[in-house]
Automatic annotation (TrEMBL):
EC number: 1.2.1.38
Keyword Oxidoreductase included in the entry's annotation: yes
Organism: Raphidocelis subcapitata
Family: Belongs to the NAGSA dehydrogenase family. Type 1 subfamily.
CDD domains: AGPR_1_C (cd23934), AGPR_1_N (cd17895)
Pathway: Amino-acid biosynthesis; L-arginine biosynthesis; N(2)-acetyl-L-ornithine from L-glutamate: step 3/4
Keyword tags: Amino-acid biosynthesis, Arginine biosynthesis, NADP, Oxidoreductase
Protein name (record): Probable N-acetyl-gamma-glutamyl-phosphate reductase, chloroplastic
SUPFAM superfamilies according to UniProt: Glyceraldehyde-3-phosphate dehydrogenase-like, C-terminal domain, NAD(P)-binding Rossmann-fold domains
NCBIfam families per record: argC (TIGR01850)
Length: 375
């Protein structure tokens, strides 16, 4: 992250020209001036952390809603060394003329209202669910509100980077995938495309760290409610189901319905999907593993583990990597596929950075090659 020349003012660190939002950085082909909308939330903070190692990103505005007006380092003290960008401001105070691209880290429904009002010159990577579902009726059914920007929705590119790279490069608006849908589609899309698993018998048992629910205070996320146990939620009704089914149906070339149950785990970050699949077309667990290894051989962030090796969430903590393991099931003709990511990195801000790199023409891995933090 570049640091722009700035001088202190009564409002904190303010740039050289008219912006009330932070620093003003001059436009240049090697620098992308970024506003992080929703920087007082977990995914926004993670964007700032990743940007600190990005030579082409210069953060010019960080927004908050309730936290607006506070110095960023007061809201996220762990980012004190990366936050000389002025205080959090309201979105209405951002001078978008001085911004090239936006990471939109806002709650769904609010997001579409904000994005439809943004100036057209901006490239946008949206981390919410608002532009992921192609069919706005399906969106309304699962999210409970009519889509407020259906025309804009038609222009959005679904940003599962490894599977849509060429389209993402040309996009103005990238709909960054949900964290659970990322863990499911990376392994299962190639297997469905290759006819190696049945489209009619997919069972997904998924688990998430509590940061997946965001930073806003909720009773169900209190320590006492979460600690020393796990619980399923959204059973038979989680809103990631249509997103997963959209991607898997595209891959299978026919309607796919899945059984998907997410669980809340007593950990701050990390996500695992364990997928029970029925083999098809003469495939074996070994051939599934070989097919995935071949498909992802040149991918910088996807690793298919050797036979017998079990992916752990702790092995991707803080990194943009996705680890996959394939195992035989005891039930004949079936296999178990396990995929782990960090929900805040490959499941959100890391994949968003990968996508912005593509949109801006930077090498895709820029700012993202840090390995997991372990132990
Ligand atoms: N957490 C995760 O693992 C993942 C999250 N996502 C999605 O990314 C988005 C952000 O998630 P996350 O960072 O966890 O959420 P948080 O709840 O942690 O942060 C939300 C942010 O949005 C701001 N905000 C809330 N309401 C408004 C409003 N009406 N107007 C303007 N700003 C507002 C908040 O500001 P303030 O706090 O100052 O009020 C805060 O900065 C969500 O859509 C989420 O579903 C996607 C993948 C994974
Ligand atoms: C633990 C937890 O609550 N997780 C969130 C998913 C986070 C995510 O990816 O959601 P978006 O679709 O909003 O981007 C949930 O289940 O709703």
């Amino acid at each position: 992250m570049q640091t722009a020349v700035a001088r202190p003012s009564a409002r904190g660190v303010v740039g050289r020209t008219r912006s009330r939002a932070g620093l003003v950085v001059r436009a240049s082909k090697d620098t992308c001036r970024v506003a992080v909308l929703g920087a007082s939330g977990y995914t926004g903070a993670e964007v700032v952390r990743l940007s600190a190692l990005h030579p082409n990103i210069s953060i010019t505005a960080l927004t908050g809603e309730k936290q607006a007006g506070k110095p960023f380092a007061e809201v996220f003290p762990h980012l004190v060394a990366a936050s000389n960008v002025g205080p959090l401001v309201k979105i209405s105070d951002v001078e978008f003329a001085d911004v090239d691209a936006v990471f939109c880290c806002l709650p769904h429904a609010t997001t579409q209202q904000i994005i439809k009002g943004l100036p057209k010159h901006l490239k946008i990577v949206d981390l919410s669910a608002d532009f992921r579902l192609r069919d706005v009726d399906t969106y309304a059914e699962w999210y409970g509100n009519e889509h407020a920007a259906p025309e804009l929705q038609k222009t959005a590119v679904y940003g599962l980077t490894e599977l849509a790279r060429d389209d993402i490069k040309k996009a103005r608006l990238v709909a960054n995938p949900g964290c659970y849908p990322t863990t499911v589609q990376i392994p299962l899309v190639p297997l469905l495309e290759g006819g190696m698993i049945s489209k009619d018998d997919i069972i997904i048992d998924a688990k998430s760290g509590v940061s997946g629910a965001g930073r806003a205070a909720k009773e169900s996320n209190l320590y006492v409610e979460i600690a020393e146990g796990i619980n399923a939620y959204g059973v038979s009704s989680h809103r990631h189901m249509p997103e997963i089914e959209q991607g898997l149906s595209d891959a299978a070339g026919a309607d796919v319905k899945v059984s998907f149950t997410p669980h809340l785990m007593c950990m701050s970050r990390g996500m695992q999907s364990t997928m029970y699949v029925k083999l098809a077309g003469g495939a074996t667990p070994d051939s599934l593993r070989a097919a995935l290894s071949e498909r992802y051989a040149s991918e910088p962030f996807v690793r298919v583990l050797p036979k017998g090796s079990v992916p752990h969430t702790r092995h991707v903590r803080g990194s943009n990597f996705c680890l996959i393991g394939v195992f035989p099931d005891r039930l004949p003709g079936r296999a178990i596929v396990i995929c782990v990511i960090d929900n805040l990195v490959k499941g959100a801000s890391g994949q968003a950075m990968q996508n912005l790199n593509l949109v801006m023409g930077f090498p895709e891995t820029t700012g993202l090659m840090q390995l997991a933090m372990f132990p």
